[in-house]
Amino acid sequence: MKKIIIGSDKSGFTLKEAIKTHLCEQGYEVEDCGTQSLEKGMTFYEVAPVAAKKIQDGEFERGILICGTGMGMSVVANKFKGVYAAACESTYAAEKCRAINDANILTMGGWMIGEVLGCEMADVFLHTEFTQNLEEWRQKFLRGAREQVKNIEEEIYQ
User: Fold this and answer.
1) Which tens digits make up the pLDDT trace of 107-145?
2) Predicted model pTM
3) Active site residue 97
4) Among the four 22, 43, 116, 122, which has the fewest Cβ within 10 Å?
5) How confident is the model at residue 1 (pLDDT cuts 50, 70, 90)?
6) How far, in Å, CA of 95 to CA of 92, rounded?
7) pLDDT, tens digit (0-9, with 9 covering 90-100), for 60-97
C-alpha cells in the first residue's frame, strides 16, 4: 500500500505537513483532504468525513487525521461504517491499534505530538498488519472479534 489519505484542521496543520512530506519522501501517494494553509483552516468535523468516506468507499485503505488532540477526528471518522479510527499518542499505541484493532485511520493531536514522533507513529501504523507478531491463539481470537464488530455494525447500519 503506497497510497494514503491525510488531513488536518488548523491545530494539526504543522504536524500534518511534516508527516505528508515524510510519506512523500518514502514514495507514498498522499491525498490531502484537510487544511491547506494556516490562514484558511478547516474544522475537524469538515475534514474527518471526507477521509472516512473515501476509506469507506475503498478508495484508500488507510488514513491519518490530525486535530488538536486527535480525539475530535476519531469521534467523527468512527461514525462511518467500516471505518476504525484510533486516537494515539505513542508508537506503541499506533502499532497496537493496527495489530489488535485493525484500525484503518490513525488520529493524532497536533498540540501533543512532535514532528519526529508523528512521523515515527505514521511509519509504524502503515507498516503494521492486523494480528502481526501476535501469538496464534490471539490471532484467532482477534479475527473472531473483528467479525463480531462487523456484525454489530450490520445491526446498527441497517
Assistant:
1) 999 999 999 999 999 999 999 999 999 999 999 999 999
2) 0.96
3) no
4) 116
5) low
6) 5
7) 999 999 999 999 999 999 999 999 999 999 999 999 99
CA distances from 77 to 26, 74, 85, 116, 128 (A): 26, 5, 6, 25, 20
DSSP string, 97-143: HHHTT--SEEEEETTT--HHHHHHHHHHHHH--TTTT--HHHHHHHH
At 7, is the secondary structure helix, strand, or coil?
A: strand
What pLDDT is recorded for position 158? 81
Cell of 85: 479510527
Catalytic residue, chosen from 33, 67, 97, 119, is 67
- State the Cα–Cα distance between residues 87 and 73, nearest whole angstrom: 8
